Amino acid sequence: MRDTRESRLLLVLLVAIAFALITVDIRGGEDSPVDGARQAAATVFGPVEDGIATAVDPIGNAISAVRDSGTRHDRLAALEKENAELKAELGSDDRYRSRVKQLDRMLKTAANGQYGIKGAEVIAIGAAQGFSWTVTIDIGSNDGIRRDMTVLNGDGLVGRVTTVGPNTSTVLLANDPDFTVGTRMESTDELGFASGQGDRPLRVELLNGKAKVKKGDRLVTFGSQADRPFVPGVPVGVVSRVDPSGGDLTRTVYVEPFAGLTKLDLVGVVVEVPRKDPRDTVLPPKPKPTPRPTVTVTVTPSPGAEVPTDGQSQDPQEQ
Q1: Of 178, 190, 184, 110, whose CA–CA distance to 150 is shortest?
Q2: PANTHER family, from UniProt (predicted)?
Q3: How much is the pLDDT for 264?
Q4: Higher confidence at residue 273 or residue 27?
Q5: Three-class SS state of 147
Q6: What range does the domain containing 218 cover?
Q7: Burial of 44 (0-12, 13-18, 19+ CB in 10 A)
Q8: Is the pLDDT of residue 24 over 50?
Q9: Average model confidence (pLDDT) across the chain
C-alpha cells in the first residue's frame, strides 16, 4: 500500500477502533461484548499456535540442554579439580609426616641446647654467584635474621647465615670449602677446626697432635666470641676415619656430619643464644652396641662310647 493521505486516515481510524474495543472489553469484564469474538479467534488460531509451539519447543529444549550441559560441565570440572587436590593431599601425607618429624626433632634440639630459634624452609639451592654450597631460606631481616647467625636442624649443624634480604637469607653450608667452625670432642674436650670438603666428610684438624681419638667419637661446636657466628654445643658429626699419619702439632680426622646437607627441608636459625654452654647435652644418646650372638655347641658321643660321669674323663686304654 502506497503512503497516501487516505491510507494514513485509515490507519488512524483502525487505531481508534482498537482502543475503543479495548476500553469496552475492560469495562465489560466477564460480560464483555467482545468475548465471543475472542473465543472464535482462539478456535481459529489455537491449533496454529500449538503447532508452532510444538515446533519451537525442541529448539528451546535443545538450547536449555546446551546451557545445562555447560553448567554440568563446570560442575564436573570443579569436582575433578577437587578430586585431584584431594589425591594430591593424600599423596603428600608422607611429606607432611616427614615434616612433622623434622620439626619435632628440631624443637627437641633447640630445647636441649636452650636455643631460641626461628623456623624456616629451604626454598632454593646454590647462589647467583660462584659455586658455593649454599641454600636460600624463606626468612630475612623482617623476621629478625642477621648475618653470622647459626643455622641448624633436628640432626645438627647446617651452616651459618651469610647474606640477608628483607624476606630471604643465604646460608653457607657446613660442607662448603670456605666453611670453618671450631669443634670440641665429646668427653675428652679436645679442640679443633672443621672445614668443609663438598660431598666428602668434614676435615677436622685437632690442636693436639697426640690426641686419642677413634672412629665413632662425636664432636660439637665449640662456640664463637659473643656466640657469632656459632653458638656452642650444636652437634657437628661423628668421626668416620682417623688419619694414621698424624703430625706433632695437629692430628687430622674426618667427620660425617649429623645433618644431611644434601637433603635439607626445614631448618632453624638461632636468634637467641643459650645462657650457658650446653656442652654435650644436645648430642643424641649413643647407640647401644649390638650384642654378639651366642653360639651353643652340642657334642653327640659316638655309638658305644661311654659318657664320663662326675666330671671325670675315662681313657679307653685304662679300662
Answers
A1: 110
A2: CELL SHAPE-DETERMINING PROTEIN MREC
A3: 94
A4: 273
A5: coil
A6: 118-282
A7: exposed
A8: yes
A9: 78
* DSSP conformational letter for 153: -
| Phi and psi torsions of 56, nearest 5° | -85, -30
CA atoms within 13 A on the CB side of 78: 6
- What's the structural domain count of the chain? 1
Angstrom distance (rounded) from CA 40 to CA 314: 141
CA distance 71 to 48: 34
Assigned domain for 253 exists = yes
Is 69 a member of any domain? Answer: no
CATH of the domain at 249: 2.40.10.340
Q: pTM of the entire structure?
A: 0.63
Q: Which three cell numbers stand for residue 314?
A: 675315662
**125: enclosing H helix or E strand:** strand 116-125
Q: At what angle do helices 93-113 and 35-91 cross, to 10 degrees?
A: 50
Does residue 140 come out as left (phi exceeding 0), alpha (psi in the -120 to 50 range) or beta? beta
- Residue 34's CB is within 10 A of a number of other CB atoms, namely 13
Task: For residue 271, give every residue at least 6 positions away whose Cβ sits within 8 Å of its Cβ, in sequence order, or none.
Answer: 116, 117, 118, 144, 145, 149
Domain assignment of residue 290, yes or no? no
SS3 readout for 64-90: HHHHHHHHHHHHHHHHHHHHHHHHHHH
